[in-house]
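Thought: the user asked what SrtB family sortase looks like in 3D. I have the sequence; next I should run the structure tool and report back without guessing.
Action: structure_tool
Action Input:
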Amino acid sequence: MNRWKENLGTKKRTGDGAARWARRIFCAFLIVIGCLVLADGVGDAVRRAENRDSQSEGNVEQNLSGKSDSDASEPIWQPDFAVLKCQNADVIAWIRIPGTHIDEPIVQTSDNESYRSIGLDGKPDPAGTVFLDCESAPDASDFHSIFYGHHMKDGSRFSELVRLKDEDFFQKHRTAYLYFPDGKRRTLRLIAALTAGSQGERRRTEFADRSEMHPYIEEMTEGCRFRELPDEEVSHLYSFVTCSYEFADARTIVYAVDE
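Observation:
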């Protein structure tokens, strides 16, 4: 009798263990289902929040620039000229060509020699600093503004101007931006890139009137097989110049006009 009770007790404990395992499996199943439902709900919430954020950012961009994210060609940005001028009072602008490494401050002084070998900090630097021709108006308001920068092996300064002589690369990088301390930004359209000599005529900055600009541009860009001459009268021409090595004293020159 006692042995039977013991055996019965053993069977009862075994039955209780099986029931407990069944309950545990069922609870685990419910937990997994609950987690999946919760995760799906969280995912929906995150997606809804992301959509709201995206719409909000688009509205902010539209408020700032008058354009939506989809048609804004360049984010709103302005160099801190107060800081730049504290570092160097000769800073007069900033040049940026999206898709290239050309993203540089521009200086100007009374000659075209100093910044060939002086950095923005005023110390000797073989890379020099990008500078505006001393005969060009500092706000690039005259007919022809000429900018110079070294062709460095590390790709800095104006080195990537050389790549613009490749038609495919040129067609993909037709826009440049000039920023000025007064907060203005000029959008430029690149019209030609070529190898040329260093003839003095390429430094011409004085013209009687706008009527002289178109024939001058046609002459200066004659060597470019994929040039795009402007259809309308030009108010400003911009030249970006760096060293080239096709022949003695060669230059790579990229020409641009206001877009």
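Thought: the tool returned a structure. Summarizing for the user.
Final Answer: Structure for SrtB family sortase predicted. Strands lie at 91-96, 103-107, 131-132, 144-148, 175-179, 185-196, 237-243, 251-258. The chain has a mean pLDDT of 80.
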